[in-house]
Amino acid sequence: MSARLAAALVALDAYVLDNPWRDPDASAVIGAKVRGLLIGYDAHWSDAEWTLDGEPEQIVRLPIVNPETGRTSRTFSQAGKFDGIVSGYGKRLLLEHKTTSDDVADPNSTYWRRLAIDSQVSKYLLQAWQAGTKLDGALYDVIRKPTIRPKRLAKADLAEISAKGTYCGFDVERNEYENVLRGQGDETPYLYSLRVARETLTEPERFYQRRTIPRLDADVAEYSTELWAIADEIRLARLTGRHFRNSAACLEWGRACEYLGICSGYDTPDSDNWRHAADVHEELPGVEDGRDVLTNSRIKCFQTCRRKHFHRYEEGLRRIQDDEAEALYLGTALHHALAAWWSAQPKEA
């Protein structure tokens, strides 16, 4: 096992232990899936030339500037978290990790065409530019999530573990076989992680892709104009109380919006289902006065549904019941592990 993979797995185990999702069993399964992905990721990318400049997970907070007048907004500032800045192949790029269920192997897929115009790239490059670092673009480091789930072990699987001490081509310790017997033949999270790893190692191009997303100076300058205009729209919505609902977004991504009950009159903000968050940007530790801070997530929320934006970022409403989607938990756990993987890169002699 490489030092980078070992560091990533330690960070993953610590995150899952300190931040359980729903219950320990569910957390263990998601952690196992991430573990399998990390094994394949390390094998696929260890020889790539990209190296991390500085520390990962950098939080930045900057003013919002009117590009025509140079005037700074008196209402809002902007903030974000960079996964990192990397150098390699003659370029210096913003590193951005992404997880998806979409096809990423085809360079002409919808996923990559959408990223070509993703405002997040422009926003982060603008922030880096304002902070004094002019980058050549963004390196999107995309990982496709496996669809396989833990399974009931077949007799052939049990025979392989018992007779050869292996599973899916990996050595298995005796205690894992004993765990299987105690579980009446169910695949343990550890064994499940090995099956995920085998799938990613067999078809790495299906699971791991990197693309350089360029941005011209004119593109970044155009976004700075858009950012100023969006900030002004949010300010006007706040002043006028015009937080329009967008019913087309109530079932976005195949699940109901968390505020659907409030918007439809079946719930109220003062019921026992809700709490008022003191920090509306819980993903950015240390960012204070969050209601006057614009992030990429907040901007996308405002553009999707102004009423949702009002409940989430103006009122700070959060559900007391943990309804965090599995995909979000997996992505966050993987981000923590990848930060450790990149930080553990071999030092130059």
Describe the protein in words.
The protein is globular and about 75 Å long. The mean pLDDT is 89. The protein contains 13 helices and 12 strands. The strands form 4 sheets. A 5-stranded mixed sheet has the order 1-4-5-6-9. Helices cover 45% and strands 18% of the residues. It is α+β, with helices and mostly antiparallel strands and 349 residues long.
Topology summary:
Layout: H1 3-18, H2 24-45, E1 51-53, E2 58-65, E3 72-82, E4 84-88, E5 91-100, H3 110-115, H4 119-130, E6 137-144, H5 155-164, E7 166-167, E8 170-171, H6 174-182, H7 189-202, H8 204-207, E9 208-214, H9 217-240, H10 260-263, E10 274-276, E11 293-294, H11 296-304, H12 306-314, E12 317-319, H13 326-343
Parallel strand pairs: 3-11, 5-6
Antiparallel strand pairs: 1-4, 2-3, 4-5, 6-9, 7-8, 10-12
Termini separation: 22 Å
Number of strands: 12
Task: Profile the largest sheet.
Answer: 5 strands, mixed
What is the approximate shape?
globular
Q: Over all CA atoms, what is the radius of gyration?
A: 22 Å
Helix content: 40-55%
Strand content: 15-25%
Mean pLDDT score: 89
List the uncertain runs. Answer: none
Secondary-structure element series: HHEEEEEHHEHEEHHHEHHEEHHEH
The spatial strand order of the largest sheet comes to 1-4-5-6-9
Number of helices: 13
Helix/sheet category: alpha+beta
